[in-house]
C-alpha cells in the first residue's frame, strides 16, 4: 500500500476457530491494535489454539523484525472463550475459520446470526465453499461475505474480499478498509469465483508443472529454474507446492478425477514417506 | 549460472532467417565472440535484417551496460549472405529461425542437410512445430534438435534444448554447453513437449487470468497486483501479455476454439485499436 494504513472500521473482532488460519487471523488482527476475541469448541481446542498463537507470533516476529514487539504482545491481548454467544455478543466483525464442511459452517452461522449485534458484519474465510452457499443461514445475507487469507498471513498478505450476489457493496468496501488496517493487501472480487483470484491463477500453473514432471519432460529443479529465470519470480512451481503443503496439494488433486495420476504420485512419493513440504522439513526440496 | 561461462563448442555458427528471433540469436552469438554467418532470402531481407541487428544491439546495450561494447560491435562481426549453400558450407552449428510453416522448414532443412559439413549440428528455433516433424528432412536426425529462445534474448535468457526421440543425447549435451557459452540459461527437456517447458507453464496461467477478466471477477490491475503480492513475481499476467505482444496472444487464442471469446476480446479492444502491448506503447497498460 502506498497510502498510509487506515484505522480499522471495527473496534471488536471475533475469530471463530483457532486452527492454522484462524489463529493467524486472530494474531494479525490483534497485532494491529484491534480488540480480538477468539472462539473454539472446548478447553482442549483453546489450549491448542493458544499454542498456535504463540508459535505464529514467534514466526511473524522472526520474519518481520520491525513488528516483533507487536506480534510478541498480540497473543496476550486475545480473549479466548468456548462460549459462542459470549464470543460474538459484542462483535463488530466476525471472521469464521472453522473446518470446511458446509453443514458445520451453516450451523455456526445460524447461531452467530442469532447472537451477534444486528450491526455486526460476518465473513467466512472458506477456501472451497462459496459465500452464497451459507449466506441465508446468517439471517443477514447483505452483511455477509467471504474474506480469504492465505497461510503465513503476516508475509503472504493478500486478503480477498468476495461478496455473494446479495452482499451490500458498502459492506465489502468497509471490509476492504479493515483488511488494509491489519496490514493486508485487499483484493476485491466483483463476483463469486471458486478459488478466488489467487488460486484461480495458481492452480493451473501448478497443474501444468505437475504434468511436465509426470510426463518426464523435465525434472523439478529444471522446471523451477525455467520459471524463475524467465519470469523473475523468486520461486518456481514446486517451491510453491512445498509452501502450500503437499497434503493440501494432494487434497486438491484428489478432488478432480483429471488429476488422479498426480494425487497418486504425491501419495506414493511424498505423503507415504512423511514428506509434506516446508512444514515437515522435506518435500520436493529439503529445508534446514 | 554459478559456474564460469564455458567456451563455445562451435567456432562457426550460422543463423537462418533474420526476423525478430533470428536477428537476436545472431546478435547474442556474435556478442559472445563466436563467428556468425546469417542467411536470409534476398538483399531486401538482408537489409531489413541488418537494421534489426543494429536496433537490437542498441536495446541490448541499454539493458546490459556492462556488455554495451560487445553488443555494439556484434552487428559488424556478422557475415550476411543470401546464398544458403555458402551460408552453411563451413558451419559447426546451424540455427534455423525461418517462418513457422512446416513445409518451408522441411525444404530449408533438406537443402541445409545437403550443403552443411556432415559434422554440423542442426537446430530449429520453432515455437510451435516439434523437431520430430522435420528431423528426417535433415538427413541426419541424430544431430538435429530444437533450441528455443524467447524474445529479448539478452534479458529473457532461457534456451530450451529439446531433442526428438532420435536425437543423440551427446549432441543435446553439447548444445547445452553452447547455450551457456552465449550467456543463456540452458533448459534441458528429456522428451518432446509442445510449447516446451516455459510456455507449457505460462499459457495456463495467462489463460486463467483472461478467464477472470472475461467473467468480470476482477480488473486487470487487481489480478496483476494479486499475483505480484502473493508470489513476489515482478509482473502480473497482464503485464506478461503486454511483453509477449497482444498479436501473439491473439494468434495463440485463435488456434483454440475454447479461447474464442478471449481472441474476440483482444481483437475488439486491443488489436483493432492498434494496441499491441509494449511494442506499440499501449496494451493493458501504457508505456513511456
UniProtKB/TrEMBL annotation, chains A, B:
The keyword Iron-sulfur does not apply. It comes from the Bacteria. Residues 13-189 form the 3-hydroxyacyl-CoA dehydrogenase NAD binding domain. One of its GO terms (biological process) is fatty acid metabolic process. Its EC number is 1.1.1.35. Coiled coil: none annotated. One of its GO terms (molecular function) is (3S)-3-hydroxyacyl-CoA dehydrogenase (NAD+) activity. The record marks 148 as: Important for catalytic activity. InterPro entries: 3-OHacyl-CoA_DH, 3-OHacyl-CoA_DH_NAD-bd, 3HC_DH_C, 6-PGluconate_DH-like_C_sf, 6PGD_dom2, NAD(P)-bd_dom_sf. Pathway: Lipid metabolism; butanoate metabolism. The keyword Zinc does not apply. Residues 196-287 form the 3-hydroxyacyl-CoA dehydrogenase C-terminal domain. Pfam families: 3HCDH, 3HCDH_N. SUPFAM superfamilies: 6-phosphogluconate dehydrogenase C-terminal domain-like (SSF48179), NAD(P)-binding Rossmann-fold domains (SSF51735). Keywords: Oxidoreductase. Belongs to the 3-hydroxyacyl-CoA dehydrogenase family. PANTHER family: 3-HYDROXYACYL-COA DEHYDROGENASE FAMILY PROTEIN, 3-HYDROXYBUTYRYL-COA DEHYDROGENASE. This is 3-hydroxyacyl-CoA dehydrogenase. It comes from Pseudokineococcus marinus.
Amino acid at each position: 500500500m502506498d497510502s498510509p494504513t487506515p484505522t480499522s472500521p471495527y473496534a471488536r473482532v471475533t475469530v471463530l476457530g483457532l486452527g492454522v488460519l484462524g489463529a493467524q487471523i486472530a494474531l494479525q488482527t490483534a497485532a494491529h491494535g484491534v480488540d480480538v476475541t477468539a472462539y473454539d469448541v472446548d478447553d482442549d481446542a483453546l489450549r491448542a489454539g493458544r499454542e498456535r498463537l504463540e508459535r505464529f507470533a514467534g514466526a511473524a516476529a522472526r520474519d518481520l523484525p520491525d513488528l516483533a514487539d507487536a506480534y510478541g504482545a498480540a497473543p496476550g491481548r486475545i480473549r479466548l472463550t468456548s462460549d459462542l454467544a459470549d464470543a460474538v455478543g459484542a462483535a463488530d466483525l466476525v471472521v469464521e475459520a472453522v473446518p470446511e464442511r458446509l453443514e458445520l459452517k451453516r450451523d455456526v452461522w445460524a447461531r452467530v446470526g442469532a447472537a451477534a449485534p444486528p450491526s455486526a458484519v460476518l465473513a467466512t474465510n472458506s477456501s472451497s465453499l462459496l459465500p452464497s452457499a451459507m449466506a441465508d443461514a446468517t439471517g443477514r445475507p447483505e452483511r455477509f461475505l467471504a474474506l480469504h487469507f492465505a497461510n503465513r498471513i503476516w508475509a503472504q498478505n493478500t486478503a480477498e474480499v468476495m461478496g455473494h450476489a446479495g452482499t451490500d457493496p458498502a459492506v465489502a468496501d468497509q471490509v476492504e478498509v479493515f483488511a488494509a488496517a491489519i496490514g493486508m493487501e485487499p483484493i476485491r472480487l466483483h463476483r463469486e469465483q471458486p478459488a478466488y483470484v489467487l488460486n484461480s491463477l495458481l492452480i493451473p500453473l501448478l497443474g501444468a508443472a505437475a504434468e511436465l514432471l509426470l510426463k518426464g519432460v523435465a525434472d523439478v529443479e529444471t522446471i523451477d529454474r525455467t520459471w524463475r529465470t524467465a519470469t523473475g519470480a523468486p520461486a518456481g512451481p514446486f517451491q510453491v507446492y512445498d509452501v502450500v503443503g503437499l497434503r493440501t496439494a494432494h487434497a486438491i488433486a484428489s478432488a478432480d478425477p483429471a488429476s488422479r495420476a498426480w494425487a497418486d504420485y504425491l501419495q506414493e512419493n511424498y505423503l507415504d514417506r512423511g514428506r509434506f513440504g516446508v512444514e515437515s522439513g522435506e518435500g520436493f526440496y529439503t529445508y534446514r
